[in-house]
Amino acid sequence: MRIGIHGRDFKQKSHQFIENLLAYLLREGAEVWVSDKLFKLLTRTYTGRVKVFSMGDSLRRLHAFLSIGGDGTMLESVAYIGRAQVPTLGINTGRLGFLATVNREEALSAIEQVLARNFTTEERTLLTLKSNTGLFGRFNFALNDFTIMKKDSSSMIHVDVFVNKQLLNSYWSDGIIVATPTGSTGYSLSCGGPLVHPASESFVITPVSPHTLTARPVVVNHEAEISFRIEGRTNRFLVSLDSRFESIDSSVRLSVKRAAFTTTLIQLPQYEYFLLLQKKLNWGLDARN
Prior knowledge:
Elements: E1 2-7, H1 14-27, E2 31-35, H2 36-41, E3 51-53, E4 64-69, H3 71-81, E5 88-92, E6 102-103, H4 107-115, E7 120-131, E8 141-142, E9 145-150, E10 157-163, E11 166-173, E12 175-179, H5 187-190, E13 202-208, E14 218-221, E15 226-232, E16 237-241, E17 244-248, E18 254-267, H6 273-281
Parallel strand pairs: 1-2, 1-4, 2-3, 4-5, 5-6
Antiparallel strand pairs: 7-8, 7-18, 9-12, 9-16, 10-11, 10-15, 12-13, 13-14, 15-18, 16-17
């Protein structure tokens, strides 16, 4: 079985944990591929035989992919995988982790199940960005969200948002988020957006610190094309796809819609989405106790 692995910026205490996982996979006869970023983080004494891949390399030959870190690492793993749709499991060595759902203590058991192919898969919708300047090149897609944000100024920006070329609203705000159902637990949630089940066919448009209280998050059909016209007191803005950023000016034309491909997540037998929400958000707990 060919297994890809990505990790980044992990703390010193995680070195031995990750190298133990690599050693286990090699003992079980797996062919292990690691990202260039992860390979640079391995200790100088590491002697395991692994193959190294870089961003943009084809990973279609892989049978499964392990993302070791937090949700940010998972989003970067999706960028590495791209259109290959390799089933991916997130092992959480970070903090909250809505995407990296397997904790450190469960990691070995989870990998055993992956090697035994004892899992199901779940397709997650991606956003794709279209621009007149070719922003982000081949990596113009996102699992979580697309954002437009102010840059180098305390002033708000003005963004006209169109849904299928019809004006939705003109927002005076710090920015605009378009989140997928997967991304509804991320930045959008912290700005007052709703939680959306991953199987829902919808996107959420969420303003960031809007000037008017009537500017509320809006849920639209995933078949919609969402486009933007941006103005501000300065002519520089930031746009992002997941954790990747570009600087633009108001001449750039932007639109997002559902990508023609998906990303594939591994779900182990014990996985339940609502149970995950309860665990991560402490739902059902009495704060008085």
